[in-house]
Amino acid sequence: MPFFTKPSSDKSDESDLSDQSDQSDSSDLSQPTKTMNKNELRKEIRSRKRQYTKEQLCELSAPIIDRLRNHPKLVAAETVMLYHSLPDEVFTHNFVDEMVKAGKKVVLPVVISETEMEIRCYTGEKDMAESSFHILEPIGELFTDYASIDFIAVPGMSFDAQCNRLGRGKGYYDRFLNQVPNAYKLGICFDFQKLETIPADEYDKKVDEVL
Questions:
Q1: Is residue 162 a contact partner of residue 210, using CB atoms and an 8 Å limit?
Q2: What's the pTM?
Q3: pLDDT tens digits for range 114-143
């Protein structure tokens, strides 16, 4: 599987999983996307995701979570910002609980408006509640000590070889990452979401590394 790392100059249709999970040639997947704009790329990534069932995405998540679990920046971190995965994201629900049991201070983001998200402490299932959209969202104590965050697992629609990130289009993470310049930011996605290049502007925030 390909690993993207930070450049040295920068600080549902059923199908056979074995046929679909060969994601080793990220550049071949990227060829038709080089001239696409951001919205076209999001449409392309959504199309790729629809090729997999929820169960297949969970299976593909396992080796990614293994790499995340053993990442030296995460191992060394005390306060970690993770995410409670949506159905089409790398599955993190069990991993979040695992990090709490390992003694990490875990915080999770939650969207509160069209332009903002806030961060909540997570200590266990009691800190989650079902939203009006029928997804679980964190409701723990409000967390505002952003300077203490050591490590952030950043989900994305796509990442490229230069560590550029393509989000869902609302800019939540771009705005938030401005507030945590010292935290190590690790992009998390499936290999089939990785592209050779993503259009980026001054408002788009890179991650330090893509897992």
A1: no
A2: 0.81
A3: 888 899 999 998 998 887 667 788 999 999
